[in-house]
Amino acid sequence: VDPGWNDDAIAAVADRVEAGIDPAVHANALANLSLTLNWAGKNEESRRLAAMALESGYEDPTMLMMVGRHAALDGDNDRALEYFRRAVQASPNSPVVHSQIGMLYNGMGDLEAAAAHIFLASLIWNDNDVYHKQLATVMSQRGRMRSALRSLREASRLKPADQDLVRRVEQAAAALSGSDRDPPRAEIDVTRHESGFPRTVAQTAPGPGGSPALDGIWTEWYASGALKSFADYRAGKPVGAPANWSEQGDRLP
User: Fold this and answer.
1) Average model confidence (pLDDT) across the chain
2) Strand 251-252 with 187-192, pairing
3) How far is residue 24's CA from residue 194's CA, in Å, rounded to a whole number?
4) pLDDT digits 0-9 by tens, 139-191
5) Mean pLDDT over residues 224-233, rounded?
6) pLDDT of residue 116
7) 31 or 213, greater pLDDT
8) Which terminus has fewer CB within 10 Å in the chain: N or C?
9) CA-CA distance, 10 to 66, in Å (whole number)?
10) DSSP strands (E only) in the chain
11) String of DSSP letters for 79-141
12) What is the DSSP letter of 180?
């Protein structure tokens, strides 16, 4: 071994190597490792790497999401929400980010915002049964069992071997009566901003005349990815009052 290859030399080489790495790429690598460690249950290591990534100054969506997740674990929902909103703005089309902010809203008791973000995640990654199950849970909590049943059936269609899903579908149907036990599968109607990001996303079903009518969830979005409005519909008619938000995330009267 070359006697000159000591700790100081190794550190100097490491510094030169790290200096040659694109800081944005380095921050993303740290964020992805933080996410992996979090999934593996190594929360403290995950937290440390997320903080290191944050120091880069780059608005990497995975990094922001992970910092938000750790803030939520600490019970600091306001800080968590701040980072999740920044993550949405950094990557409006990320289903993972929308699902995560949706689950945070759910824990905070804002079930309309939770449903909206998880609904959008289920559109962007529509063959992921997990998002449909999450949406079913939130809609059930809101007392919208017909919508919950729809989402459970979609999840079961995607994962037919899941016996727990079969049981949940049966339980949801048993809680309903009449035609609500067999709602038509929702079609999705989307309009888009110039960027391609959704402006409105809505569930529809054939109306009395056979043409599509709003039926289920209706949402409106700012071009930044922030939620603007949420409403429930049944056969083309609103159910209850809509909910509205400013682009900064404040709920409007």
Assistant:
1) 90
2) unpaired
3) 27
4) 999 999 999 999 999 999 999 999 999 999 999 999 999 999 999 999 999 99
5) 97
6) 98
7) 213
8) C
9) 31
10) 187-192, 198-206, 212-221, 227-234, 237-245, 251-252
11) HHHHHHHHHHHH-TT-HHHHHHHHHHHHHHT-HHHHHHHHHHHHHHTTT-HHHHHHHHHHHHH
12) G
Residue 55 has a pLDDT of: 82
Q: What is the rounded CA–CA span in Å between residue 239 and residue 179?
A: 17
Among the ranges 43-47, 50-54, 58-62, 243-247, which has the highest mean pLDDT value? 243-247
Q: Residue 162 and residue 34: Cα distance in Å, rounded?
A: 30
Q: Which amino acid is at 84?
A: F
**58 φ/ψ angles, rounded to the nearest 5 degrees:** -90, 140
Q: Which of 125, 126, 154 lies closest to 139 in space, CA to CA?
A: 154
Q: What distance in Å separates the CA atoms of residue 190 and residue 186, rounded to the nearest whole number?
A: 13
**Neighbouring-strand partners of residue 230:** 219, 243
Percent of the chain, pLDDT > 70?
Answer: 92
Q: What are the pLDDT digits (tens) for 110-124?
A: 999 999 999 999 999
Return the SS3 of 36: helix
DSSP 160-178: TT-HHHHHHHHHHHHTS-G
Q: How many residues does the chain have?
A: 253
Q: What is the DSSP letter of 183?
A: P
Report how far residue 204's alpha carbon sits from residue 233's, in angstroms, rounded to the nearest whole number.
9
Burial of 57 (0-12, 13-18, 19+ CB in 10 A): exposed
Please report, for residues 42, 64, 96, the alpha-carbon distance to residue 35 in angstroms, rounded to integers and kept in the order given.
10, 11, 11
